[in-house]
């Protein structure tokens, strides 16, 4: 079992740290918030991030955004300096690709970007999917640790590849969800029932995850958030954040992503109109209104 330092015990980090401790690892934790510190049962509280990282074989962060990650790893008293030379450094936050590469380059030893999908429920159940960028050797060492928190662990390539996979996947998800919602809105106007559209599209070329697993109207898929008044699930504010990261990457690389850009505009409007805490499939309500 490994000695692990874990920094950032929010909605995702606290259950992830708990699962590491449950798996038998020796986990030292730190968060700026005392309230968050109290949530990591089974782990030992540390006085600072550097204190949690000192002597650890693996150091993990789960922080809000790129500026927090850069500051935590590279700032004064940062984790990269505090961790031993043999430690594997892993950031699980969802951040922009450029910052992930910058921090990995500056860390001076194996550094993995390992964002997740699966949300708070996946973090609690230990069923997250990890998308990992960074050197093969670091990945091989980190994989068993990540498996204590997740079910699927994919090595996507060099530094930044995990964040790239997350940005591309979530942009595709947003576009497919909006397309699915639009198909239902048009069906309603044409007098075609939800059930009939679902029956046809789920078995023909319109088939996609947003339709068959996460259907944005109540009925056809009983477990989807549409059946519980669009309680998340995956909140629209988080989708908006991920679309911003995808557009940032598109801007930096010159990739043409007109549908991703339009999806960002639509989710921004949905969030501004009060949808931030609503499941992202709830955007169908806004689309009905035009
Ligand atoms: P959160 O805001 O609940 O938690 C972030 C925690 O980081 C807070 O407790 C905060 O006090 C702490 N923190 C910030 N700066 C710190 C520092 N320098 N040192 C120590 N602690 C610090 O966020 P979350 O929902 O847990 O999300 C974390 C990351 O995971 C984000 O990048 C998010 O986009 C991503 N993510 C979230 C979900 C989700 O469903 N919540 C799903 C997938 C990915």
UniProtKB/TrEMBL annotation:
InterPro entries: 3-OH-isobutyrate_DH-rel_CS, 6-PGluconate_DH-like_C_sf, 6PGD_dom2, 6PGDH_NADP-bd, HIBADH, HIBADH-like_NADP-bd, HIBADH-related, NAD(P)-bd_dom_sf
SUPFAM superfamilies: 6-phosphogluconate dehydrogenase C-terminal domain-like, NAD(P)-binding Rossmann-fold domains
Family annotation (Gene3D superfamilies): N-(1-d-carboxylethyl)-l-norvaline Dehydrogenase, domain 2, NAD(P)-binding Rossmann-like Domain
Biological or metabolic pathway of the protein: Amino-acid degradation; L-valine degradation
Domain 6-phosphogluconate dehydrogenase NADP-binding intervals: 3-157
Alphabetical UniProt keywords: Branched-chain amino acid catabolism, NAD, Oxidoreductase
Catalysis: reaction(s): 3-hydroxy-2-methylpropanoate + NAD(+) = 2-methyl-3-oxopropanoate + NADH + H(+)
PROSITE patterns to which the protein is assigned, alphabetical: 3_HYDROXYISOBUT_DH
EC number: 1.1.1.31
Pfam families documented for this protein: NAD_binding_11 (PF14833), NAD_binding_2 (PF03446)
Domain 3-hydroxyisobutyrate dehydrogenase-like NAD-binding: 160-286
Molecular function (Gene Ontology), one example: 3-hydroxyisobutyrate dehydrogenase activity
Enzyme class: oxidoreductase
Protein family (similarity comment): Belongs to the HIBADH-related family.
Protein name per Swiss-Prot or TrEMBL: 3-hydroxyisobutyrate dehydrogenase
Native organism: Muricoccus vinaceus
Organism ancestry: Bacteria, Pseudomonadati, Pseudomonadota, Alphaproteobacteria, Acetobacterales
